[in-house]
Each structure stands twice: as C-alpha cells, then as structure tokens.
Amino acid sequence: MEFVGSVVRGVASLTQAMEDGRTQMVGLLLPSDFVGRPGRDSAAYDVVATTDLVMCCFRKKPFEDMMVRTPHIAQRLLEMTLDELDAAREWMLVLGRKTAREKIASLLSIIARRDATLNLAGVEGPLEFDLPLTREAMADYLGLTLETVSRQVNALKRDGVIDLVGKRHVIVPDFDRLSEEAGDDSDGGMLS
Amino acid sequence: MEFVGSVVRGVASLTQAMEDGRTQMVGLLLPSDFVGRPGRDSAAYDVVATTDLVMCCFRKKPFEDMMVRTPHIAQRLLEMTLDELDAAREWMLVLGRKTAREKIASLLSIIARRDATLNLAGVEGPLEFDLPLTREAMADYLGLTLETVSRQVNALKRDGVIDLVGKRHVIVPDFDRLSEEAGDDSDGGMLS
DNA sequence: CGTCAACTTGATGCTATTCAACTTTGGTGG
DNA sequence: CCACCAAAGTTGAATAGCATCAAGTTGACG
User: Fold this and answer.
1) Of the candidates A114, B18, B62, B143, which lies 20 to 30 Å from A57 by C-alpha distance?
2) Tens digits of per-residue pLDDT, A77-103?
3) Beta bridge partners of B163
4) Which chain B residues have a beta carbon less than 8 Å from that of A75?
5) Full-model pTM
6) Test the B interface: residue of A67, A79, A92 with most B CBs within 10 Å
7) What is the maximal distance between C-alpha atoms in chain A?
8) How far is Cα A28 from Cα A48, in angstroms, rounded to an integer?
C-alpha cells in the first residue's frame, strides 16, 4: 500500500479471507473514515470498494514525515484508531453472541446512525437510507450466509421493524424498536 | 478509570456484556500489553483479572501530559493500538467464520505463540504451557458455551493434536498441526 | 471427609447452514 | 421496444453443528 487517505463518498470494505474461501469483513469504511496504516508496509487486509468511491489520498512516505514533525497529527490518529478499536470490539460482541436477527438489526442500526449523523438529521421520526451492501457483503460482515441474511431481513420487514422499497432502500419507522431488536436496548426503563 | 498501565505478570480480560447476561471477551491482556485509554474517560469495557496479576500503573493525567510533551510516546502508543486493532480483526475472523474446533485451536495457537516468544523458546519441538483461562472464560472469548469448549478441547486431545496434564496444562507436540486445525495453514504446500 | 467450583458427559432441540430451484432487477444489443 | 442475460435476491427442504438442560465427575482446600 503506497497510500493513506480517507473516504469522502461511497463505501469500502476491509476483508480477511481463509484459503478455503471463507471471508470475514473486519471493517466497514464509511465517509470520514481513515484508510491505511502509517508505519506499516504490510497490507494485512483486502480493501474493496462496494460502491462508487471517492477518496482523499496522500502518498504514505510524506504523510509519515509530516506525522513526525506534527505531533498533533499522531495524536489525532491515535484517537481515530482507538475509535476503530472500539468499533471492532463492539462488532466482536455482535459476531460472538448475537442471533442472526440481532445481527441484522445491529448492522441496520449502525448504518442508520452513521447515515443520520452525516445527513444532519435528528434521531427523531422515520430514518431512511440506502443499503450500501449486497446481501453477500452483509453476510460477510455478520458472519452469516447470504440466505440467512435474506430471510432475516424479510422477517424484520414482516414484523414491521423496517420497511423496504425495492431491495436496498430501508425505512426505519421506529429507531428504538430497531435497537431493541439489536439487543442494544439503550433506554432500559425510561418512565418509572 | 484513573489509571493506565501495562501487564507485567498474569492475565486479565476485557469483556463486554449484554443486559441479559450474554458476555463476549473482546481482549486478552497478556504480559507486555497496555491497558487503558489515554484521552478517554469512558470505561467502555470490564477489565477483570483471570489470574493473579501484577501491573505497572501510572495515574492517567500525568501520563497524558507526558504524552503531549513527548511525541515519541504517542507514536509508540499508536503502534501498539494498531497492533491491538490487528488482533481484534484477526479475532473477528475467528468469531465470524470458524467452527468450534477451529476456534479452540486458534485460541491455543495464540496462547502458545505468545508464551513461546515470552519464554524465549524457539518454535521447534513440543510447546508447553498452562491455560490461564477457565473453560467459561475460553467460551466467552470464543463465542461458544463452556460445554462446547470442554467437548472440543477433549476432541483435540483424543485426536492427538494436543496433550493434557490435568485440566489446564497443555502440551503441543506439533505446532504446525495445531495451526492446520486452526485453519491458519501457514505453510500451504511446502515441498512441491 | 465434606464441600464447592471447575470440568465432563449425555440426550435433545433449535438455529443457521447447505444445496437446490426459482424470481426479480437492471443493463445490453438486436 | 423487447428479448436476453447475468447478478442479486428469494424461498424451500433437509441436515449439521452448536446450545441447552440435566446429571455426573474430579480435584483442591478447609
């Protein structure tokens, strides 16, 4: 990898594969995410664009030089890396302990939240967004098969947790309901 | 969390839990690992010692001040965090895509490797170490139940991949064999 | 020698996978 | 404009793998 940079528009995925073809997505790169590993040569993972993608890139070497000269940048990068580490660990809980339905709900919840904050919408009222992933990509992210993804997405639709327009456009009428389904259950017992 | 520090002796675990009790270990802290989150107050996870533990601690505030004054430290910390991120992502593949048997083999493989590098032993000949984790802790790390852990550990023993002395002391006669079982299959096809 | 936590083992059921067929969608060229 | 195709997605039936529940067993320690 000759470059580092950050995603401006579109979605890319970071995947890891075994020789027999089993694949796990280990990172979802949405707009504003940083890509690359200053101080490392090894490209440990495959980076693949899953939609049309616009990135803002720097040659790695000059960037690293700048890092050494500008302590602020290293500190900012450390913060971003800690955020990524948090995200990775949150995802470990999803992969290790959640059911298929909860996994789907978790993914939709994350994308919805990201999309909402980016599009300056409040968390009130129905959220709405396009899935930037195929069913197969979702399966690779969630540690499921694409068939199971399909079944559970449609189950959530049948149960009114989400609504679908076509196969990719998702409407979330009640975000708290989705969070419950994800097992995140943020609010606990709100009133009394 | 008032402190940051690093593990000197013993093992601690970083876990995340859902309200209903499901638990996922998101990090295994072995000697030389760093603990804590400079620049963050939130204690996002539970840190629990799983054996007797000796740590080398600093109060967080002075440590952060030192970080600002000494760019080197921030850069070293960034490297360590990137390593942790790699480890977390490797573990995502384990959690998402590996079978119970492969998960067990992966865990043993990691502990064996860590233990070997720490005890300055080569990777040749039989490796030998004590499991620093109960079956339940292993289950929480692997996203399995403790019963499945027990069954698969004993299956690996029956198949001669490992040998057990008591319930905790593990002997690995052939590390490559263990790697194969873990699905890591490093060597591929060595001779022709 | 009794007790408790860690661990093992067995029987059963459920969830997600597997394999296979089928449908929908969007794009291409006749 | 429509027939055709490939890629994406859906659906069904059968099965495997792990979870669950329920007894046991072992080993360390008072």
Assistant:
1) A114
2) 999 999 999 999 999 999 999 999 999
3) B171
4) 39, 67-68, 74
5) 0.93
6) A92
7) 57
8) 10
